[in-house]
Design brief:
Strand order of the largest sheet: 7-16-17-12-11-10
Shape: globular
Structural class: alpha+beta
CATH class of the largest domain: Mainly Alpha
CATH architecture of the largest domain: Orthogonal Bundle
Distance between the termini: 54 Å
Number of helices: 15
Number of strands: 24
Radius of gyration: 22 Å
Length: about 500
């Protein structure tokens, strides 16, 4: 089923949630501006088809046409005003869907942009209820904090694409709509089972009926206790931990299945990282008990699950993904970060000292963690950062040579994880600076902090690691994923990178 565009979404809302139609209409201009700003940012910095020349606020595209816009709107993490417009020649454009059409890009990408606009407006139309005090003061559970994130990926113009889901599905399963659901237990013939434990697949409720239709030898076996989706729609918090499920839905840059490599590598990598992070203020919850259905003798990525430990917490502590710190507090609409960081400079120094030296130490020992805002969490005690949690190991890279130099036998891993190329390893880690740190600095700047002072603090934290990787991180441009270029590429799963000026670079 195609993802609904703005018009179809409103029609469906009239039937499903008529009370949301007014808020949805009011939210659409803001959603279009947000997606248009991300798209302009991509045009300003990524290797995209049809881009012939660039200058601030001015891009020459195929046919000699000139696209003009406010340069500030294309900056990373910009907060555009509703009604943001650009001009392609003499035509004023406020709808990113129209811009994609005018650029001649594929209809599939245009549909993803349309779905992202509609789903983002739907998220804005259905915010969490207001609270009587800042939410971090209420000792919220982790799922509540993760479900505050309405905007999705901060740079990706397909930040809220849900290809294959209709409006009812988005409302029922999107974490931004705060659902509680139950996983389906599907009994699997023993000779078709891969993994530990009984042959029972844990299937997302969106996925389960589709699997039963395609594979009639699967048998329904009841449902789990209630679970809540985290920032990643397909990963849920259960009473005992987290479960990553397979959901055949295009979300941002990929269809969210569970690959055979993830099933094989997850438990081995988390065991390795438990040793590599010993003594550091950085922990990696174990991934364990992979399960999948064998199809043609191999674990099938569409019929798989993987368990992960929940972060260990002490009384009075709160754990929050770094990306969620930019989310609006239902108390007053200001970012969560601005409530936590009452002294922004001290708070930022605490965070960067917890984040960058340990990441660089783990890299020096042999593993590059791709610390983006969804999989990197900070533990707060009274609002103060006290340690870091890193979850989800799919994007890491492992250096066998560095592991051996550290006296560790490299584990047997499958896929593209092993590499000794220092540039590849550093790029994975440096992405944490360009995206994660960049977004948090932007939030603190909007709260009145001096970004130059914040970046100087981050640079000091990086330098304190004292490694060659740290020196490179302070000297080279910052890589960020070229997410639009990846969606338009022949193989959208290959990483494509672009670069930002490095605000930590020393003169």
């Amino acid at each position: 089923m195609p993802t609904a565009d703005a018009v179809r979404t409103r029609t469906e809302l009239e039937r499903l949630r008529p009370e949301l139609t007014g808020p949805y209409d009011r939210a659409l201009p803001r959603a279009r501006a947000e997606i248009l700003a991300r798209l302009l940012g991509a045009l300003a910095r990524e290797p995209l088809p049809g881009v012939a020349a660039r200058a601030p606020g001015r891009i020459t595209v195929s046919g000699g046409r000139v696209l003009t816009f406010d340069p500030a709107a294309a900056l990373p993490f910009a907060v555009p005003a509703a009604g943001l417009a650009c001009r392609l020649g003499a035509e004023a454009i406020t709808d990113p869907v129209l811009l994609v059409r005018r650029l001649g890009w594929p209809d599939t990408f245009r549909d993803e942009i349309a779905g992202s606009v509609a789903n983002l407006a739907l998220a804005y139309a259905d915010p969490p209820a207001a609270t009587t005090r800042p939410i971090l003061d209420t000792e919220p559970d982790p799922a509540t904090l993760e479900q505050l994130v309405l905007d999705g990926h901060p740079l990706h113009p397909c930040c809220r694409s849900r290809g294959g889901m209709d409006v009812a599905d988005v409302l029922a399963y999107g974490p931004e709509h705060r659902p509680t659901l139950r996983l389906h237990r599907l009994r699997v013939p023993a000779d078709r089972w891969y993994g530990e434990g009984p042959p029972v697949l844990l299937a997302h409720p969106w996925q389960a009926p589709r699997l039963l239709e395609r594979h009639p030898w699967l048998a329904p076996d009841g449902e789990t206790a209630p679970v809540r989706p985290l920032m990643s729609l397909r990963t849920v918090a259960t009473p005992t931990g987290h479960v990553k499920t397979a959901v055949d839905v295009q979300m941002t840059s990929a269809v969210r299945t569970v690959s055979p490599a993830a099933l094989h590598n997850g438990p081995r990598l988390s065991a390795l990282l438990r040793d590599l992070t010993a003594g550091l203020p950085l922990s990696v919850p174990a991934e364990y008990a992979p399960g999948a259905v064998l199809v043609d003798g191999r674990p099938d990525r569409h019929l798989a699950h993987l368990h992960r430990q929940a972060p260990e917490m002490r009384p009075g502590e709160t754990v929050v993904p770094l990306a969620a710190l930019a989310a609006a507090d239902p108390y007053d609409g200001r970012a969560l970060l601005l409530h936590a960081a009452t002294d922004p400079y001290t708070w930022w120094q605490d965070l960067t000292n917890l984040l960058f030296p340990p990441l660089l130490a783990v890299l020096d020992r042999g593993v590059a963690l791709e610390a983006h805002g969804q999989n990197t969490l900070v533990v707060l005690d009274g609002g103060r950062p006290v340690r870091i949690v890193y979850r989800d190991l799919g994007g890491v890279r492992v250096s066998p040579a560095r592991l051996r130099a550290a006296g560790i036998d490299p584990p047997r891993l499958t896929g593209d994880l092993p590499t000794d190329d220092p540039r590849v390893l550093r790029t994975k880690l440096a992405a944490a600076v360009g995206t994660v740190a960049g977004q948090l600095v932007a939030v603190l700047e909007r709260g009145g902090a001096d970004p130059a002072k914040l970046w100087a603090t981050a640079a000091a934290a990086v330098a304190s690691a004292g490694t060659s990787d740290a020196a490179a991180l302070l000297a080279e441009p910052l890589p960020v994923k070229a997410t639009t270029a990846m969606r338009l590429a022949a193989d959208p799963l290959d990483d494509v990178w672009t670069h930002l000026d490095n605000p930590m670079a020393r003169p």
